[in-house]
């Protein structure tokens, strides 16, 4: 078996581990159990995981749990103690300390003053959103390589991991590729577990004819034309508030109309090597 085939074999095994992690964040994640899922030696598999994904499995679990916890804080009234427990922490103090180290503020303050608070109706502060923060941009049509995701939008990282595994298998990972996600449904109307989206990348160059696009990857066309673009800086968990402001305030007051095409997001940096407060996302709303 050649080097590409060997790597693909390991990618397949570790993809099963990632699927299990995403689906069982509420449960204890035992290293021995994850080794069994990977069908690899419990003495060595986590080193293979770190070498291939650039972070330890413990870091992945902590990052995903804290990412979800930030979503609970921004978008729900779940008690912080319950969020801490669901995030795998035995004490509220330990959770608060870790959350603060990652997000720059304790959980209670994040719930009240996180990035999402900028999108609330203005009361008195100067930090509220303004119409000028949206720019109109002409976007060229794109054909992206994508993996389908059905379920909570906050878990689209699962589809991105599958896509990156496929790209790695075919030696298509490139520093200049653009990370794009297409969102088809309104989470205020469609049940969370039925939300449809696609995790995608736009490669800097066409793929070679020798590479066949195959399951789970497909080619998705992104419509070109005018888009209203809102650049969001902060955790992905705050995006719901950004969308509510973009549709409920900016679009209504702008005099423009949304086109019959899905919204997409472009991620300008990665949560694996960027602090949540520094994440940059462009929300792109198609216009008539």
From TrEMBL:
Q: Please state every residue range assigned to the domain named HTH araC/xylS-type.
A: 15-113
- What is the top-level taxon of the source organism? Bacteria
Q: Which Gene3D superfamilies match?
A: Homeodomain-like (1.10.10.60), Regulatory factor, effector binding domain (3.20.80.10)
Q: Which residues form the signal peptide?
A: none
Q: Name one GO molecular function term.
A: sequence-specific DNA binding
Q: Does the keyword Transcription regulation apply?
A: yes
Q: Which SUPFAM superfamilies match?
A: Homeodomain-like, Probable bacterial effector-binding domain
List keywords of the entry alphabetically.
Answer: DNA-binding, Transcription, Transcription regulation
Identify the PROSITE patterns for this entry: HTH_ARAC_FAMILY_1, HTH_ARAC_FAMILY_2
Would the keyword Electron transport turn up in this protein's UniProt record? no
Q: Which Pfam families match?
A: GyrI-like (PF06445), HTH_18 (PF12833)
Q: Where are the transmembrane segments?
A: none
Which SMART domains did the record assign? AraC_E_bind, HTH_ARAC
**PANTHER family documented for this protein:** TRANSCRIPTIONAL REGULATOR YGIV-RELATED
Protein name (Swiss-Prot/TrEMBL): AraC family transcriptional regulator
């Amino acid at each position: 078996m050649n080097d590409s085939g060997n790597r693909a074999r390991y990618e397949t095994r570790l993809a099963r581990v990632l699927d299990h992690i995403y689906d069982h964040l509420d449960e204890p994640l035992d290293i021995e159990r994850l080794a069994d899922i990977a069908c690899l030696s419990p003495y060595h598999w986590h080193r293979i995981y770190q070498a291939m994904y650039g972070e330890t499995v413990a870091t992945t679990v902590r990052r995903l749990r804290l990412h979800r916890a930030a979503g609970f804080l921004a978008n729900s009234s779940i008690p912080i103690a319950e969020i801490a427990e669901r995030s795998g922490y035995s004490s509220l103090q330990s959770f608060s300390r870790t959350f603060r180290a990652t997000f720059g503020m304790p959980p209670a303050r994040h719930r009240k003053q996180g990035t999402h608070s900028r999108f609330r109706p203005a009361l008195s502060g100067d930090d509220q959103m303004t119409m000028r923060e949206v720019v109109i941009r002409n976007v060229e049509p794109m054909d992206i390589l994508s993996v389908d995701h059905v379920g909570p939008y906050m878990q689209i990282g699962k589809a991105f991991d599958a896509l990156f595994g496929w790209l790695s298998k075919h030696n298509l990972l490139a520093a200049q590729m653009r990370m794009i996600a297409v969102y088809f449904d309104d989470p205020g109307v469609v049940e969370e577990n039925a939300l449809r989206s696609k995790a995608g990348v736009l490669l800097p160059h066409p793929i070679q004819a020798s590479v066949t696009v195959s399951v789970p990857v497909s080619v998705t066309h992104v419509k070109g034309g005018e888009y209203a673009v809102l650049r969001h800086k902060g955790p992905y968990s705050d995006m719901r508030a950004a969308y509510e402001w973009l549709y409920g305030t900016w679009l209504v007051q702008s005099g423009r109309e949304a086109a019959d095409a899905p919204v997409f997001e472009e991620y300008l940096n990665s949560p694996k090597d960027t602090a949540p407060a520094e994440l940059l996302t462009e929300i792109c709303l198609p216009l008539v």
